[in-house]
Amino acid sequence: MIGYIRGKVTALFKDACFLEAGGIGYRIFISDKTRQRLSNGEEAKLLTYMAVREDAILLYGFLGQEEYDLFLVLLSVSKIGPKVAMGILSSMDPAQFVGAVKAQNVSRLTKLPGIGKKTAERLLVELKDKVGAFASEDMEGAVETETPKDDGITGEAVRALMSLGYEMEEITPVLRKLAGSYTTVSALVSAALREFARNRE
Which stretches of the chain drop beneath a pLDDT of 70? Predict the structure, then answer.
C-alpha cells in the first residue's frame, strides 16, 4: 500500500487532483476541504488510502492524519464506502464530526450527503466508542471550547439560529468569527445567515 505521495499538484477537479511525482501523475480523490487547501502548481504531500475494487484501483488523499484516521473509522461502519466517507469529510471537519457523535446528534448527521436517518443512527451506535480512540487531545479541546460565550446577544442569536434548524456545530464557528462585530441580535443573526450561505456556495 502507498503510504503517502509528495509531488506537484498539476490539476484540480471537483473531487480529485493530479499529483505528479517521479514523472507519474496520480489521480487522487480528495475531500472538498482538502481541495480548498491545495493550489495548482504547488507541492503537496497527501497521505493515501488505496481502495481495490473489481473494476478499479482508486487512491484517496488526505492532508492531515486526523482526516485520514476518521476516513478509516468511517469505512469500518457497515454500508459506508469511500465515496460516502469523502462526502462526510467534505461537509465536516474531524472535530465537528466527533462532537456530533459524542452528542448523539442524529439531526446533524442526517444533513450530511448520503446519510439518512437509519445510517445516522448506525453511525452513532458503531462509532460511539471508536471516535474517542482516535480523537486527539487537540480535537477534544476544540469540541469542548468552541461553544460561543453566552453574553446575551450571542446566546439569543444561538437560540434564534437553532430555531431555524441550524445545529450548534454549524453555528459555533460562525458566531466566533462574527463575535463583537454586531450590537443587536437581528443584525448578528442576519450576518450569520449570510455566512452560512457563502459557506454553501
Answer: 132-152, 199-201
